[in-house]
């Protein structure tokens, strides 16, 4: 008997796709600190590494856990038993590491800070709400496409807030 729930690529129920998985033994989300900057990171799913590391990086990769370092100034993206990987080892730009307005913030639906600001200036729908609706419909692939290995909504919400704060207080529509 099926539950009617959509499954993520790694077999978890889709509604769980955008959550960091708990460590099986402790039930807690494991965190390790980045060996370069000392910032605590979040464990990323195996699927994230397989999807986003370049073939050359995959060759030197070891088995074991990997963690994501979100610190903008740190060159390290992933670290842990799996190895140490920097921006050049990935097939996509990393939002947290690359401040370019064209760098994706939502990897599933192609939103960037630049496109979000434009949507808001034009009076379009709030991108965070649009993305949330698509996630609820089971249409995301965050674990495979987002370098942080989890949902982008927190990042998108910050970008929307920044775009609204930078917007001129004129008659321009901002959703």
Tell me briefly what this model is.
By secondary structure, this protein is mostly helical. 29% of the residues lie in helices and 6% in strands. Residues 1-10 and 19-29 have low confidence and may be disordered.
Keywords:
175 residues, N-terminal domain of TfIIb, four-stranded antiparallel beta sheet, 4 strands, mainly alpha, disordered N terminus
Quick check: average pLDDT? Answer: 84
What is the helix content?
25-40%
Detail the poorly predicted runs.
Answer: 1-10, 19-29
> What's the level 1 CATH class?
Mainly Beta
The biggest beta sheet is recorded as:
4 strands, antiparallel
Provide the gyration radius in Å. 17 Å
Write the layout of secondary structure elements.
Blueprint: E1 42-43, H1 46-52, H2 55-60, E2 67-68, E3 76-79, E4 85-86, H3 113-121, H4 127-136, H5 142-145, H6 153-166
Antiparallel strand pairs: 1-2, 2-3, 3-4
Helix pairs in contact: 3-6, 4-6
Walk me through this protein's architecture.
29% of the residues lie in helices and 6% in strands. It is mostly helical and 175 residues long. It has a single domain (14-166), classed as N-terminal domain of TfIIb. Strands 1-2-3-4 form a four-stranded antiparallel sheet, with no helix packed on it. Helix 3 crosses helix 6 (153-166) and helix 4 (127-136) packs antiparallel against helix 6 (153-166). 32% of the residues are buried.
């Amino acid at each position: 008997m099926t539950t009617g729930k959509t499954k993520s690529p790694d077999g978890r129920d889709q509604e769980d796709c955008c959550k960091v998985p708990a460590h099986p033994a402790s039930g807690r989300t494991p965190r390790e600190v980045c060996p370069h900057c000392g910032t605590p990171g979040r464990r990323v799913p195996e699927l994230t590494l397989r999807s986003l590391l370049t073939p050359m990086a995959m060759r030197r990769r070891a088995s074991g856990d990997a963690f994501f370092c979100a610190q903008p100034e740190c060159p390290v993206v992933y670290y842990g038993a799996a190895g140490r990987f920097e921006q050049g080892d990935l097939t996509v730009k990393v939002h947290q590491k690359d401040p370019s307005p064209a760098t994706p913030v939502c990897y599933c639906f192609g939103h960037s800070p630049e496109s979000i600001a434009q949507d808001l200036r034009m009076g379009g729908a709030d991108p965070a709400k649009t993305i949330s609706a698509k996630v609820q419909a089971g249409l995301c692939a965050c674990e495979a496409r987002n370098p942080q290995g989890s949902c982008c909504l927190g990042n998108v919400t910050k970008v929307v807030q920044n775009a609204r704060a930078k917007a001129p207080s004129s008659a321009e529509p901002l959703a």
